[in-house]
Amino acid sequence: MAASSLAARPFSHSAPLRKKKKAPQYPTYDSPEIVSRTSHTVDEADHDDLPGSKHPKPDPADPLNFADVASRFMSLAAHHTEILKKLQSGDRFSPDAIGALAVQPNRKDPKTYPLRELAEIVPRPGGRTVSLLLHEKDYVKPVMAAVQASPEFNQQPQRDPDNELELVLKVEATNKDAVVRRAKDASQAWRDKMRAVTEKRKKAHAKWQKEASIVPDLKRRADKELQKLQDKEMKVVDAAEQQAVRKIQG
């Protein structure tokens, strides 16, 4: 790869077309004593679950075990925390956001790769431009096409006259109020999905009582403990939202 004259240290670096790591499995238990650390069968996929996630199945024989709820809460936390992190780090033009852009290197092959696997992403001094230092010359046109087609960037990268493997993106000014609103919307979506998880589990409690798998007193206790778990996690969302807003506004 041709050497770049930039002195800035790359924010991301990876080998070309590096094989993707297997996604980590989320834990099937949480810290509260109400969640058992025993093994569980896997619950059927729910339409509200994040793609690729797996969660333990609730068991009427152990109604105070909320491993299924804790697992879904942890999955949602990982997903939405990442969204807030990207918004805090500079919104659209952060190295993480640019690096996540999907690129199709070969027209005949529908497979796509994150831009971070095809290039180093280097913010230039002054913060007004970002350089994409491509690993291969063949990536130039596919990367340009991906950037132009992306609603997040929607611009034509400029070629560097001194380096055929370098493309330059112009960093557009971002309205802080708009970014704050996106952070709040993401946080609210996080809360709504958590409430949906809780409601799903409450319906299971009602079903178990109707089927005489649990007695009414145990059903009420399960509902109460479930609400405590949700309330605890809601405080985590509130803190994450407040931190994101402060950083964006600052």
Written overview of the protein:
Necessary for protein synthesis in mitochondria. Functions as a ribosome recycling factor in mitochondria. One of its GO terms (molecular function) is ribosomal large subunit binding. This is Putative ribosomal recycling factor. It comes from Colletotrichum sublineola. With 250 residues, this protein is α+β, with helices and mostly antiparallel strands. It has 2 domains: 67-87 and 176-249, Ribosome-recycling factor (Topoisomerase I, Chain A, domain 4, Orthogonal Bundle), CATH 1.10.132; 91-170, Gyrase A, domain 2. It contains 5 helices and 6 strands; from the N terminus they run H-H-E-E-E-E-H-E-E-H-H. The strands form 2 sheets. The chain has a 4-stranded antiparallel sheet. A hairpin with a 5-residue loop joins strand 3 and strand 4 (129-134). The two termini are 38 Å apart.
Task: Map the helices and strands.
Elements: H1 67-88, H2 95-99, E1 102-103, E2 113-114, E3 119-123, E4 129-134, H3 140-149, E5 158-160, E6 163-170, H4 176-210, H5 216-249
Antiparallel strand pairs: 1-2, 3-4, 4-6, 5-6
Helix pairs in contact: 1-4, 1-5, 4-5
Task: Name the descriptors.
single chain, 250 residues, 2 domains, 6 strands, 42% helix, disordered N terminus
What is the radius of gyration? 23 Å
What CATH calls the topology of the largest domain is: Topoisomerase I, Chain A, domain 4
- Structurally, the number of domains stands at 2
User: Globular, elongated, flat, extended or rod-shaped: what is the shape?
Assistant: elongated
* Low-confidence residue ranges: 1-16, 18-42
Question: What does the largest sheet look like?
Answer: 4 strands, antiparallel
Q: What is the name of the CATH class of the largest domain?
A: Mainly Alpha
Number of strands: 6
Helical amount: 40-55%
How far is it from the N-terminal to the C-terminal residue, by CA? 38 Å
Order of helices and strands: HHEEEEHEEHH
Q: Would you identify the CATH H-level superfamily of the largest domain?
A: Ribosome-recycling factor
**Number of H/I helices:** 5
**Please, what is the average pLDDT?**
80
**Could you say which structural class the secondary elements and strand pairing correspond to?**
alpha+beta
Give the CATH architecture of the largest domain: Orthogonal Bundle
> What proportion of the residues form beta strands (DSSP E)?
5-15%
Strand order of the largest sheet: 3-4-6-5
Keywords: Protein biosynthesis
Family: Belongs to the RRF family.
Organism: Colletotrichum sublineola
Function: Necessary for protein synthesis in mitochondria. Functions as a ribosome recycling factor in mitochondria.
